[in-house]
Amino acid sequence: MEPRPAPAERDPLTHGLLTDYEPPEPRRWPLHLGLFLATFASAVWCGGFLVARDVRWSVAVDGAVPPWLAVLADPAFLQDGLMYAVPFLFFLTVHEFGHYTAARLLRTRVSLPYYIPIPLPGTLGTFGAVIRIKEPLRRTGQLFDIGAAGPLAGFVVAVGVLVGAALTLPGADYLLSISGHADSARYLAETGAFPPFSPDLVARGSMAMVFGDTPLFHLVGGLGWTRVPGNEIVHYPLLLAGWLGLFFTALNLLPVGQLDGGHVVYALFGPAVHGIVARVTTLLLLFSGATGLARDLSGVAPWTLWASLALIVSLALARLLDGEWRLVAIGTAVGTALVALVVLALPELAARVGWTGWLFWTVMILFVIRVDHPPVLVPEPLTPGRKVLGWLCIVIFALCFSIQPIQVIGG
Question: Considering the entire predicted model, what is its pTM?
Answer without folding.
Answer: 0.89
